Amino acid sequence: MIRRPPRSTPKPSSAASDVYKRQLITPKAVLSYEHLFEPTAPEDSNAEPQYSCTLVFEEETDLSDLYETVDAIGKKKWGEEYFSQKKSGDLRLPFRKDKLTERGYPPGSIYINVRSKLSPGIVSRYAGDDGKPERITDPGQIYSGCIVRASLNAFAYDRAGNRGISLGLNNIQKLADGERLDGRLKAEDDFEALDHRTSELDEMLS
């Protein structure tokens, strides 16, 4: 589902990046490498810490909205040359299929890395009292392996010799629990119950 930009043409904020953007909602994905409650930066790096995650899509997932959005922004930025640069690999694009086995992703998967300097909003699939999705504030509910969808913004960049199109992270909605990718078990699955809790009525009758 694409949220179309306003009819008025946005003005670029700098010569280095194209701020013509489209907002979009992804299909369901498996969450991986999530850093959504605390920003992180690569080790031995002076980069600014950011909130980030990887979204892993199964092979049969319809990603046509994402591909069309990326192509539209590429053409807006570089004109007809975009398609030849895309084919030659001169541009960095967000869709990746490499290192699937190394990362533990199913064969045929496509994944994207998304990040934001701002803390993303995280909600559940269930409605709160106001009818809108309930906010999730417990980090324990969000983990690598749960099923989510995300709102993203796509943008072109051309700076310091790096050229391409990226997907920025806005918000996350948890859709369902899933098998943890880190292999960590729930506490109730890690241990056996040792006793049964005695109720107040049992204590009164004993």
Task: Compose a concise summary of this entry.
The protein has 206 residues and is α+β, with helices and mostly antiparallel strands. The chain is 18% helix and 37% strand. It has helices at 64-78, 81-88, 100-103, 187-190, 200-205, and strands spanning 2-3, 17-25, 29-40, 50-57, 110-116, 121-127, 133-135, 147-159, 162-176.
Question: Could you explain the architecture of this structure?
Answer:
- With 206 residues, the protein is an alpha+beta fold.
- It has helices spanning 64-78, 81-88, 100-103, 187-190, 200-205, and strands at 2-3, 17-25, 29-40, 50-57, 110-116, 121-127, 133-135, 147-159, 162-176.
- The protein is built from 5 helices and 9 strands, in the order ββββαααβββββαα.
- The chain is elongated and about 85 Å long.
- The model is unreliable at 4-15 (pLDDT under 50).
